[in-house]
Structures are given as C-alpha cells and as structure tokens.
Amino acid sequence: MYYNGVYHLFYQYNPKGSVWGNIVWAHSVSKDLINWIHLEPAIYPSKKFDKYGAWSGSATILPNNKPVILYTGVVDSHDSQVQNYAIPANLSDPFLRKWIKPNNNPLIVPDNSINKTKFRDPTTAWMGQDGLWRIVIGSMRNHRGMALLYRSRDFIKWAKAQHPLHSSPHTGNWECPDFFPVSLKNTNGLDASYRGKNVKHVLKNSLDVNRFEYYTIGMYDTKKDRYIPDNNSIDGSKGLRLDYGNFYASKSFYDPMKNRRIVWGWTNESDVLPDDEIKKGWAGIQAIPRKVWLDPSGKQLIQWPIEELETLRKQKIQLNNKKLSKGEMFEVKGISASQADVEVSFSFSSLNKAEQFDPNWADFYAQDVCAIKGSTIQGGLGPFGLATLASKNLEEYTPVFFRVFKAQKNYKVLMCSDARRSTMRQNEAMYKPSFAGYVDVDLVDMKKLSLRSLIDNSVVESFGAGGKTCITSRVYPILAIHNNAHLFVFNNGSETITIETLNAWSMDVPKMH
Questions:
Q1: How far apart are CA 180 and CA 202, in angstroms?
Q2: Where a domain ends, among 248, 279, 307?
Q3: In which domain, by residue range, is 180 found?
C-alpha cells in the first residue's frame, strides 16, 4: 500500500528459517519502491483467532485516511480459516511500525456452506454507490473456484452476499484474488472504488491446482454485484496469465502519487530440496514491481517494470542495425551480464519463412510447444532472442526468444524462457521448465518484436512486445555466475533478423536497511 508518502510491503515470512512455517506478516517500507528498510513484523500469530497462522490479505485506506489490514487467521490444527483486521497503533509514526489486532476479531467466520479450509486472502475493499464496502475472499466448492463477496457498512459487521462475485467450475481453489478497475482511455491506474465511465474490471486469481496466476477482463454489474468476463476472456488454465513463468500470489494496489496501478508478485525457489534453502539461508523473492494497465484492444493487460527501476542503471552499451543470419550469435560485452537490464528491438523483412503451426499442438500449452521447439531447433522465422546467464562456452544458458508460426488464419508468436540448459547441476528433481506464452501481436503490418529482460543472478524476468507477455524464470547456474556470466544475442532461423536497437545496462544493487 501507499500511505502518506511511504510504500509499505507486507509479506509472508518465516522468521525462524528459510523453509515454510511460522508465518508472520513481515513489513518493509520504501520511498521509491527500490530501496527498502526492513522493520519488525506487523502481524504475528498471538491470539485465538490467528493462533495457527497469520496468512495473506490486503490493505485498504479508509476515507478518513486510516489504513486497515484484513488478513486470514488460522484457528486450529486443521487449517480452519477466519478473516481478521489490524490497525496501526500510532498514525503519527511515518512507518506505521506497530499494528493492533482488536479483540472484536474475527470479523468474518465461514458459514456452513463454505469449506473452512479453503477460505482465505481477502482483497482490498471497494465502496459501492450504496455506501457499502465490499471485499472478495478466495474459496472453492466441489472443485469450483469462487470469489466470495461480503458487504459491510462500517467495515466491522460483514454479511455474505447470496451469490459469489464470480465462480468457475473445474478451476479448484482460488487463492490471492484481486479485483480492480482499469481504464479504457489511458494507462493511468484507478482506485478500487472508482465508479466512473470508460472502465472494465479485472479479476485475477492464483490457482492452487497448478500454481499459476490467471485473470479475466470483463464487466462489473454493480446492480447485481456480479462480475461477467468478456466472451473472449476464459477462466482457468486455458486463460490469460499475468506471467507465464514462476510468479504467484501477486497483489496490486493503486498508487495515487503517480496515478498508476502496480502489481507485485512472488517468485519462489526452483532448486531441489529444502536443504538448498537452508544452506542459502533464504528462500523466495519479490519480482520487480510492474505498472499494469489495459491494452488498447481491451483484450489483455500490459505490464511493465516501474520507471524507478531505471535509477539502478549504470554502465550502458548500445547497438544499432546489426544483422543476424541463420546460426549467428554474438556476445553483448561491456556490462555485467549477471545483473543487467536489456532492451532489444528485432525486425525482419518477410513472414514467408514462418514454420507451419502443427494442428496437433492446438490443445497444447505454449510451454509444451517450447519444449518441442527449443532455441537449438532450427526454424524459419526464429528462434531468435537472448541467451542470458550463459557460460563462456554455452554449457549453461537460459534463452529468452521468439519463434513465429504460420497458423490456419494468422501468425502465432511463441515467446519462451527456457531453463532446461540453465545449470550444470545434475539433479532430476530440479524444476527447469521451458516456460512459454503466446504474444498477441499483428506482424503483417509491423514486422517487429521487442524484448526486455531483467537479469539478476538467479532470476530472468522478461517482457515481450512491450509487456504483452511476461515470463519469469528462476535458474541456478554454477558456471555462469558473477563475472563469469555472459550475454549473447542469437538467431537460429533461416530468415535474417535485424537488431534495430539494443540497449543494455549493468544494474546497481538497491540499498537495504
């Protein structure tokens, strides 16, 4: 949340070790979303309404400029869940270090129609025209994912609506729901309670069943208190993802300082066993905060790293109009390849060499197609892109690349972030997927594709076509580390690719206190 000039991040944290358990609400603050001060935990299990866990939730700024946290408390060893609130002990403390959990908790207890072990993660509240506050809580009934709706006049007494805000069969438990308006007119963010014209709404859920984040775009019927996804917006695992990689449990908030909405996700470890985390002494990172807005088509969201990230840019190198023929690769030198920000714009003169899209792949996830058509498989138009966190002789590398296919009616653009060759560590249990998503672009008029990758030692966070498709990979090289990491640009397709512009920066380390 943003409050009185300070950004607050509350996050699930185990103060006793780098494995899951003993979860508290850790608390950090920042003036710029880049440099952070770590404070004492804001909430930790201490009362009967959260004795077995203080799980996720959200912050809301009430009209009298008073922040309030809603969070899920676990009340017994069977993971039975209730919803609680916490308020700052001292509003004059600029960092809001101490939080109080009033004794009239819990505010919401699940009724008999609700699975009490699948009842969590209340959203930021919004106010309707009737003066009632509303929140959504993630749940499930008979494998039907549900966004349960509750209303309140005073933020204390909450009543469940007769029907959920939205639900969908065969999607499993919905975690960390997020519901917010987006403008049809521009890239500005909107407060959750915005009731003006020219808006659509977004409902995002983290699907417990496969650990990916999905969202739909649609209409919020305020009279019926129902959310209706657009016809082309699909619930569940065939729908749109915020990120096609390692990215989960995100929350968004409205930033009134810069009139934007920011979404921020968590990316967990993908190495082998808890022993790895214990040895490292830490586990899990926050991805880079992203500004989020509605694409002009109205069909999907656009995400882009917040502009403040650019303050960490140091040495810069630039390339223009470099051609890459089939099988060519060159190294980007002059920056620190283990910690870099790279923006590149590719162009090509023709779509004629695009490979045919195999009709048998129609029901495949993009990730499965990338597993078949990796960066070393020669193609027509692509594969071309970046080989990140690469060792000198390419024993290790994580390629982030495009491949263009000719489908029945149009062209399909596949974007991959493929971790299969990311490390020489030999362990079959290691999670090294060929993450991928399709990019919704029209290449007929504009034969160009852009890519931005944020590279940071064990993470590669990539944004295709200006943020239309985002993929985050966690990788654990043993050769391509620190000064031994390299960055290459490659083309493995028969169509010659032009690098119109490439800008790359070494990135500094934020200040942490």
A1: 5
A2: 307
A3: 2-307
Other CB atoms closer than 10 Å to residue 511's CB: what's the count? 10
C-beta atoms surrounding 444 within 10 Å: 9
- The 3-state DSSP class for residue 253 equals strand
Q: Find the length of the chain.
A: 513
pTM greater than 0.85 (yes/no): yes
CA distance 138 to 145: 8
DSSP state for residue 34 in the 8-state scheme: S
* Sign of the C-alpha dihedral computed for residues 271, 272, 276 and 281 taken in this order: positive
CB half-sphere exposure, 385, CA atoms < 13 A: 30
In a domain, 448, yes or no: yes
Dist CA 194 CA 198 (whole Å): 11
Residue 468 has pLDDT above 70, yes or no: yes
Q: How many structural domains comprise the chain?
A: 2
Nearest to 425 by CA among 245, 266, 276: 276
Residues 301 and 354 in one domain: no
* Amino acid residing at 206: S
State both tokens at 85. Answer: 């609130």
Report how far residue 68's alpha carbon sits from residue 85's, in angstroms, rounded to the nearest whole number: 7
> For 359-410, how does the pLDDT look when each residue is reduced to its tens digit (9 = 90+)?
999 999 999 999 999 999 999 999 999 999 999 999 999 999 999 999 988 9
Instruction: Give the residue ranges of DSSP H helices in 270-331.
Output: 274-280
Provide the 3-class DSSP secondary structure of residue 312.
helix
- Give the pairing type, strands 226-229 and 199-207: unpaired
**Rounded to an integer, what distance in angstroms lies between the CA atom of residue 246 and that of residue 270?**
9
